């Protein structure tokens, strides 16, 4: 590519592509951890963020942080396993904003048990939140984007666990692998509508969820040692990947897995 061809892209500065001013984003799992970090960053980029979660106190804390940073957040108490409730939240967002530009489907839970000891009810619960909750959010958000003619972006949350076999994380890994295939299929089916769908697959991130699973910090320390960077991830590391996929900077990216995992997994 020649210098003249590069210049033909126009006079805008590169960071303009990350500007979400005037856009509307729905974020599930926004009461803390990665979801809260995404709400803060997307709001900082100019989006009005609609924050959904079961934890109403956590949602209030997220809105306070967004407001203190000069952003705008709307709150939606939500159980992502309730298809009807998810549809109602998406409808509420579109009625208030007239459109939905970005979905970040981040709500998730973790369950630790060997395959032989995983009870059916635990597997069903993990699949309900980590897979069906993402399916419901994507399905209703995509329908809204098509109805309003919005070339939107669906961002789903998988895990580095889809690239390796981690003892004790069968249910979690299986649900996240299903999210990957769901997202790829959505990218194929929704591309003609101008809607993109991509997956973020984080490594081990310091969040309230991982702290509950690893209160003594042993797994966190082990994952930090496995990383070439020598550390575990922070929610902000993942939020920047979500912002990229939500923005025009990734306008030619769909059906892809973005892996901010500190180099713990490096699949071809």
From TrEMBL:
Stored Gene3D superfamilies: NAD(P)-binding Rossmann-like Domain (3.40.50.720)
An example Gene Ontology molecular-function term: oxidoreductase activity
Keywords: Oxidoreductase
InterPro entries, alphabetized: NAD(P)-bd_dom_sf, Sc_DH/Rdtase_CS, SDR_fam
Protein name: SDR family oxidoreductase
Transmembrane segments: none
Family: Belongs to the short-chain dehydrogenases/reductases (SDR) family.
Domain of life according to the entry: Bacteria
Keyword DNA damage: no
Organism annotation: Streptomyces qinzhouensis
SUPFAM superfamilies noted in UniProt: NAD(P)-binding Rossmann-fold domains
